[in-house]
Amino acid sequence: MRKSRFLILVLALALGLLLVACGGGTTTTTEEPAAVEQPSTAEEAAPAEEAAPAEETAPTEEAAPAEEAAPTEETAAPAEEAMGDKVQIRWFVGLGTGTDPQQVATQEEVVADFNASQDAIELVLEIVPYDSARDTLATQIASGNGPDIIGPVGWGGSNAFYGQWLDIGPYIESTGFDTSVFDPALVDSYQTEEGQVGLPFAVFPSAVYYVPAYFDEVGLAYPPAQYGEMYELDGEMVEWNWDTFTEVARRLTIDANGANAVEDGFDPTQIVQVGYSPQWQTHVNYVGSYVAGAAKIVEGDAPGNYSVNMPDSWKEAVNWLYDGMWGDQPFTATGPLSGAPEFGNGNLFNSGKAAMAITPLWYTCCLGEFRDAGLEFQAGAMPVGADGQVHGRVDADTFRIWKGTQHPEEAFTVLSYLITTGGDKLLPQYGALPAIAEKQDAFFEVKSQDYPFVTPETWEVFKAGLAYPDAPSAEQFQPNWNEAWAREQTFFDLIQNTPPSDLDFDAEWQKMIDDVNAIYNKD
Amino acid sequence: MFEELNRGFQLPTLKTFRNMSPLKRREMRDGLLFISPWLFGFLVFTLLPIIASLIFSFMDLKITDGILSTPDFVGLKNYQQMLNDPQIWTGGESGTAGSLWITIKFGLISLPVGIFVPLILALLMNSPNLKGSMFFRSAFYMPYIIPFVAAVFLWGGMLNPETGWINRALMAMGVPRAMVPNWANDVNWVYPTYVIMGIWGVGNAMLIMLAGLQGVPTSLYDAAKVDGANAWQSFRNVTFPMISPVIFYNLVLSVVFLFQYFLVPLVVNNGTGRPGGATMFYNLYLYKTFFTFQNMSYGSALAWLLFVLILIVTVFMFGTARYWVYYAGEGRA
């Protein structure tokens, strides 16, 4: 009898364990999701194209580099239905900006605001570190447990999940959402073969960030504050083009003895400051778009007849940067240098070791360390390309709805809130310029509080940058996007880390083109 | 260590179950009851995914398709693709070496180091002439308790070609800049770099070897000495046979680990395969196929190839064990 009781007890325990094991992550609580802090460093927070703890590289467009790092993970247990009659809508953050601790706090605030205004929907926030966000989202979708809302996410992150987005056109129509507040061109940019997959939310024009103090030290004029302005170099007014930019960057590249890259005796092994940092815009498509101009790089319309159509000017642009890393007169950091802790582990401009950086506006989210170190930055106009045109880049982030959502209407209600009312709090934290034009001034007022030293002229430079978008985007759709993008990234990683003595640039470029062609035409 | 495995394991048949005494049967039933939670976990979280991955490998399934989708059955297409995949066999992107050869090549470099360095260290630790052996044991073991990723980051910093203190020290000693290694960024140096990083964590293997060494009866050494054996003969005829099960254990684990080598190239070289594709290890390619390229079916096929390769190599090693692994009490198997 005693033994039977014992066996029953064992059986009960075993069943209990099974129930716990099978319990999964479902929950019916309506409380705030438990926040699980993930300690991290700024470097690790640097957005990386591939899920790689990239030391030196780390870039993507939309991904806001978290400086004080913080891929904080706040995992809200997935739940289908909320307690009572509220519908839970899960908001997934991590594919782009939004993982910085300050951003997380603001997002929590927005969630609280929304939930307080609602009796039908409960919004739940899920923060996933950038480096693992794509894997996590892919796994969630694979298991049929995808989130309802995903964002902020840019073109790259979106294309990584091509085919997963809900056409919100019908919901725009049924709810009468007023799209007239946006530039129609911006609305149309979200019209794809999948339908209307998003609405404009945040735009990030690019500019030349620079440290005035470093220019003063070597007696150089600042980059022009207006597009079309000339630049004064050695007493002459010259065009602010990439040649001028290169010369200026070389003079701002300093070695341990104080010599710059154009001076005799300059020691490239002892660089203590570089003239220019691409600041995570380290991908063939980014460099090509900035320096040579946007281009549609995919030809064909079906597997079997796709081909890469990268212009020669892109190759030249990338080669220009390669020479800037490894040439006799360097002006930018090699992979090992930019990946070194002294140079910010890839967050080079923030480390104060770069005089200029070219990157979109989202980078203003993460210059706290730079500011706290007593440094100041301003922004200048983008250089003129070899074709006489200015080629900028405008990143655009928005929220998207997963097409597998069980609650599309509720998800659209949340999306509408986030891009309008919620945007008032979110956009300044994301360092994002509102797509709604009338909100743009308020955005810059908030930014000015973060960076009181930044002049109104600098903010105007960013506004003016909206006129120079990369169309089509550097992150445009490519067949088998993830693999193609990764291959292009691999090429860039190679040139960042391999001196010319060990690398045949032309051969490696051709190899990349051949591989990407093959990737495009995979089934 | 693998004595039981070598001896073979038999599941009870219905006949043997019937022939059991009631007490034996109850004991067996109770035993099964106790391990049932683990069994359940194994079935659901290990066996089921293994079977699922086998099924996926015959499908055309992207990771974002979701489990509720109805993927197409493609038969052996993924396996055919695998046979023609240049990335596995000839190097694909890099055109240098395939992922499989990279893995094997690195294994051939790394394995001897991974076995002999801990063995030599254990022999030193076991020497009666060593003073402060406790300190040294702790010192050698200590790196093992540092999280591996943290250690890899540390090494990455130390071996940074531009700012790492090792290269700085070399240059300070007069080595010209052009001569200092580019470590993880140089095709010729990247594997030695990884091996050096691996040596950092040999403390655990050393400890296992040391335990094996301390289990060798001293009477055997005394007998060898009486027979006039010198130190080498003593090691070859007494020490080595007696600790051969431990070496075999470390060897099997090392081989499996090397086939699954992944973390270091992912962290140090960004998982991009640089330099020149030299670090696109098989398991890294598998990971990228699965998660970055989201090709669940092909990733599953790659995983099965890895499984089969590891199985073949492991079975081969067990086959050779009879010739060099000695289990006390039963003679050579």
Which descriptors would you attach to this protein?
heterodimer, A: about 525 residues, alpha+beta, D-Maltodextrin-Binding Protein, domain 2, 2 domains, 10-stranded mixed sheet, two-stranded antiparallel sheet, 19 helices, 16 strands, globular, B: about 325 residues, mainly alpha, MetI-like fold, 16 helices, 2 strands, flat
Structure report:
The complex is a heterodimer of chains A (523) and B (333). Chain A has 523 residues and is an alpha+beta fold. Helices cover 37% and strands 14% of the residues of chain A. Chain A has two domains: 42-204 and 395-465, Periplasmic binding protein-like II (D-Maltodextrin-Binding Protein, domain 2, 3-Layer(aba) Sandwich); 205-392 and 471-520, Periplasmic binding protein-like II (D-Maltodextrin-Binding Protein, domain 2, 3-Layer(aba) Sandwich). Chain A is globular. In chain A, 53% of the residues are buried. With 333 residues, chain B is an all-alpha fold. Helix content of chain B is 65%, strand content 1%. Chain B contains 16 helices and two strands. Chain B has a two-stranded antiparallel sheet with strand order 1-2. Chains A and B meet through helix 1, helix 4, helix 12, helix 18 and helix 19 of A and helix 3, helix 8, helix 14 and helix 15 of B.
List the helices and strands and how they pair.
The complex is a heterodimer of chains A (523) and B (333).
Chain A: H1 2-22, H2 42-45, E1 87-93, H3 101-116, E2 121-127, H4 130-142, E3 149-153, H5 155-159, H6 169-175, H7 184-188, E4 191-192, E5 195-196, E6 202-210, H8 212-218, E7 230-233, E8 236-239, H9 242-251, E9 254-255, E10 271-277, H10 284-292, E11 298-299, E12 307-308, H11 312-326, H12 335-338, E13 354-360, H13 368-372, E14 378-380, E15 394-401, H14 408-419, H15 423-430, E16 433-434, H16 440-450, H17 456-465, H18 481-497, H19 505-520
Helix pairs in contact in A: 3-15, 10-11, 18-19
Chain B: H1 3-7, H2 14-19, H3 22-56, E1 59-60, E2 72-73, H4 77-83, H5 86-89, H6 99-125, H7 133-141, H8 148-158, H9 165-172, H10 190-199, H11 203-214, H12 218-226, H13 231-259, H14 263-268, H15 282-292, H16 296-324
Antiparallel strand pairs in B: 1-2
Helix pairs in contact in B: 4-16, 6-10, 6-11, 6-13, 11-13, 12-13, 13-16, 15-16
